[in-house]
Design brief:
The protein has 336 residues and is α/β, with parallel strands linked by helices. It folds into two domains: 143 residues, TIM Barrel (Alpha-Beta Barrel); 144 residues, Endonuclease, Chain A. It has eleven helices and 14 strands. Helix 4 packs parallel to helix 6, helix 4 packs across helix 11 and helix 9 runs parallel beside helix 10. The longest helix has 17 residues. The radius of gyration is 22 Å and the shape is elongated. The protein starts with a strand and ends in a 14-residue tail after the last helix. InterPro entries: DICT_dom, EAL_sf. This is DICT domain-containing protein.
Length: 336
Amino acid sequence: MHASTIHDLVDGTVVAAVMPLTDLAHRPVAGRDAVALVDEHEVFADPPTVLHRIAAVRERGFAVAVRIAESASRATVVLALVEPEVVVVPAEALVASDLRAATTLLSLRAHCERTNSVVLAEGVDSDLHREAALAHGIDFGCGTALHVAEGEAGPSSPRGGLFREPTWSAPLDDATAAPFRILSAGRERVRSGKGLLVSMSADLEARAGEAGPDTIALGTFQHHDHFTGAARRRWLSMADTLAHVAVFAVGFGTSTSGPDLVPIEPHDPLVDEWNVILLGESFACALSALDLHRRTAGGEREFEYVVSYDREAVARAARATLSRPRPVPLEVPPSS
């Protein structure tokens, strides 16, 4: 996709341009006249690459836009992970009397009210689209019905441009941040043996199926040989019903079905953690435990753990987990 001109739907003036994330990731000079666009499906297709590119363009001063798929069920989860300054919705969905579209549009209001993010209607190709967008409280759009002549694409809206109020997004954690550090900040840490954590994890994993199909579930198992038995069966079952399921551990190979099995480096701080992270449209919870590498009086492995239902903290923990760098596959030398 090439750059698209963003118009003010009321006075028709040009306020900015939206450009692909990959284009702006290498652009040296930032400005409020350009917004980096990423598709919803891209976030889960290659989480570490996309999330790192988003962080890079933000460091250069660009705002980030997420295009919400008309038929997707994980829109609010992607918004929680990316915290975009601009949300792009299809104009066609604004004129449809469709329950799913209406539910998605209503759920966007919570994000926009909390962050002051801007909603952009894409594909405003008729007056009907424009009127429908305005009726939904949307002030900006892209489309053929808003076409301007070449050379008139400078931001010039007398109403104040694309961002009329400061937008807010969650603080960016550094690249080495792991869930336990994020979730334990300001929260009580409790020490426990492995047995209690197994029961708590099983309870959370059972709740995942009740949280709705839009939910993402992330688990970290330290080493691949811990991902066995009943826990493995639960995560395989979750992969059939939830929007995105990924399990992280040292020693995983590639997976062709079931949850995304993600290998991590042996020196990654995540290796010392046991995490179950659930993030859905109306439910967010994380259990995060740090391996103390010692035994309890009863001989169990001992951990220090926290549990949080704070949606912002859970989303940050999920983002930190999905952003983990993947080991570079070893090249197999050709046989002689």
